[in-house]
Amino acid sequence: MSDTEKHRISEVRVTPVAFRDLPLLNSVGVHEPFALRSVVEVVTDSGLCGLGESYGDLPHLRRLERAGQHLVGTDVFDLNGVWRGVNESLAADSGVGGHGMSGMVTDSSLADRVVSPFEVAALDLQGKAVGRPVSDLLGGAVRDRVAYSAYLFYKWAGHPGQEDDEWGAALDPDGLVRQARRIIDAYGFGAIKLKGGVLPPEEEIEAVRALRAAFPGLPLRLDPNGAWSVASSVKVGQELDGVVEYLEDPTPGIEGMARVAREVSMPLATNMCVVAFKHLPPAVRQDAVQVVLSDHHFWGGLRRSQRLGAICETFGMGLSMHSNSHLGISLAAMTHLASATPNLDYACDTHWPWKDPAEDVVVPGALTFEDGAVAVPTAPGLGVELDRDALARLHEQYLTSGIRERDDTAYMRRFRPEFDPTVPRW
Ligand SMILES: O=C([O-])[C@@H](O)[C@@H](O)[C@H](O)[C@@H](O)C(=O)[O-]
Ligand SMILES: [Mg+2]
């Protein structure tokens, strides 16, 4: 390939943004009034611009900026070179902070987290260079629409000190059923996930039963993010036998999950104890999890997430997809990845409905939900376009938000000083 046919990175811009978020509860606290993300623009000497999206925590932002400098001069078709450049940029890194998950996920790979938005942007650029959608670069779409699930949260009626939001409170089974109805009416989702780990397990079982009664045909999942002991997890698992399609991270750690898995009949899923390639051998050996939730933001991008999918297939494990609060660049990347991953067995998670539709960094219209699914964009690359005015607005909001690292626990403790995020709690 001659130099003129290459697309060398000439500039990388990393812009932190903040978008409004609602008081969604989880095992480590409550969502703050703004969620943070970083928008990565990779510009080539051939005049193209590729997009990536990642966490917005300050230590992560600094790493993305450093990695971006190391990537200048790299051809966007040289993904191994992108990987090398990112690793070089991390050589002296202590690895502390910036994982984007508040107190929750422990041990995802630093390099995989940092490389992810650059790999996505490089694939966006490759697609733009050759005039093909990212799904084609990932082996071709095996489905032209990607199904997502209704992601329910216990929530307060509004952020303390502010007016109630339009969703209102969901602190009991009736509130959750109301929330589910509203979200399903609006998006048409065909599966339901409940974020648990908020109330004692008996109350969450009651909520799941109420959802089962209200939505008899829809698969259900419950995810307490490791809030239960092994004994409690076994009890819940036995009570919800035949009710949930999987139980997600009932208890912390591979060993604990393996002990629960031996006693319950439904598959156990995780985005907490298997979050990096090094966790796969012990998890497989102990048959600790039967479903892995992939997430390209911490599994090293789209191609490494496909590698995870292949490993799951090899070892007979199911594959689902995890999410965090995100914007449209991530939704596009998730949708392309899911479309080109044949063994994706479940509707993907998304926090999308919790975001104000007016707040995004992509031009509206490319990604829409119909019957709970998003049509895979067919335009070159990711198929989404950066809205520069919106980027500037959300960056300004970041500057004034005062939030620099997601901390659900600290926010919760402003209102409940005694709150203890230690798990297992029950
Ligand atoms: O947004 C949240 O509060 C979720 O609890 C998120 O942080 C988790 O990472 C996630 O969605 C999960 O499935 O564990
Ligand atoms: Mg989870």
TrEMBL record:
Segments forming domain Mandelate racemase/muconate lactonizing enzyme C-terminal: 173-267
Alphabetical UniProt keywords: Lyase, Magnesium, Metal-binding
CDD domains: D-glucarate_dehydratase
Domain of life per record: Bacteria
Essential cofactor(s): Mg(2+)
Biological pathway: Carbohydrate acid metabolism; D-glucarate degradation; 2,5-dioxopentanoate from D-glucarate: step 1/2
Catalysed reactions, semicolon-separated: D-glucarate = 5-dehydro-4-deoxy-D-glucarate + H2O
EC number: 4.2.1.40
Record InterPro entries: DgoD-like (IPR034593), Enolase-like_C_sf (IPR036849), Enolase-like_N (IPR029017), Enolase_C-like (IPR029065), GlucD-like (IPR034598), Mandelate_racemase_C (IPR013342)
One of the Pfam families matching this protein, by short name: MR_MLE_C
Entry's family note: Belongs to the mandelate racemase/muconate lactonizing enzyme family. GlucD subfamily.
Protein name: glucarate dehydratase
Organism: Streptomyces endophyticus
